[in-house]
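Each record in this resource describes a single protein on a pair of labelled lines. With that in mind, the following record should read easily:

===
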Amino acid sequence: MTTRIAAPPEAVFAAIADPRKPFLTGNPVTTMTVVGDQTVGAGTVYRWTFALPLGLTLQFDEVVTEWIENQCLAYRAISGWEMAAASALAPDDGGTRVTFTLRYQLPGLWQWLIPRRLARLGARQALANLRNYVPRQTVGAGRGHGKPVTLFEQTIAIAAPPEEVFRVVGDPRSKLAWVPAIKRVEMHAGHTPGLGARYVASSRVARAEFAFQEEIVEWEPPHRLVYQGESPWGRFCTTWRIEPAPGGSWAHYRMEYWFPGGRPGRLVGSLLATFVRGPMTRGVARRVKATVEGGKKEAD
């Protein structure tokens, strides 16, 4: 599993090596403590506790097995279950490419109670948390604090296979066809659609045009695409999930916004969302469907 983080390797390594693990433990059902005095380097032991439904808990210890500054952090479980994981970091055009691998075998009935799909979802969420957490620490406040506002979310039935849907939504330049407000998209020099691709898009409100930066941070063709960016109104993240369906595909589309200004900003953003959600949802659904199905007919 690979993602790109808009921060240098030393900032990413500092986050994953932090014994507090704030990007993993920022919820009431997960706690982590360090066993002993050592807190950094190979040999450090962490104790994790997960609160599960029905009052059940899952607890295990893990030890750091590899610690290469700004390059790799690996660890394995030493109690509770069989597990080995590693995060490999590599510079990537001003940011960091993070590759996370996980191998595990849960003990006893746990392997039936916790499906592998759930573990994969948890790993993906951890990478998303890391991707949001690190830039906030390196750039400063005002980037993604608090809960986001879901600007719109929808599922679109498209008469084309997932590969055709991904080909369209995965190319930022296609937004000119299916995002009503977008008027211009320019890829950064040397960038093509794919993980880490960055580009400038602009939208027009009345006679004013607003430009904003976007970047593809997850790229798993033909099933998953995530891009995030900054606009004059805050930070946003858009996720596409594409699944095969009888006669074509289901395309799940969600756009979240972190409005500036704390709680008041979020309240204003929520109010704004009530006005734009309906027209934007219908407009995007109609245009994506027409763009993909029209392109498929031309290819046929």
Confidence is low (pLDDT under 50) at residues 139-145.
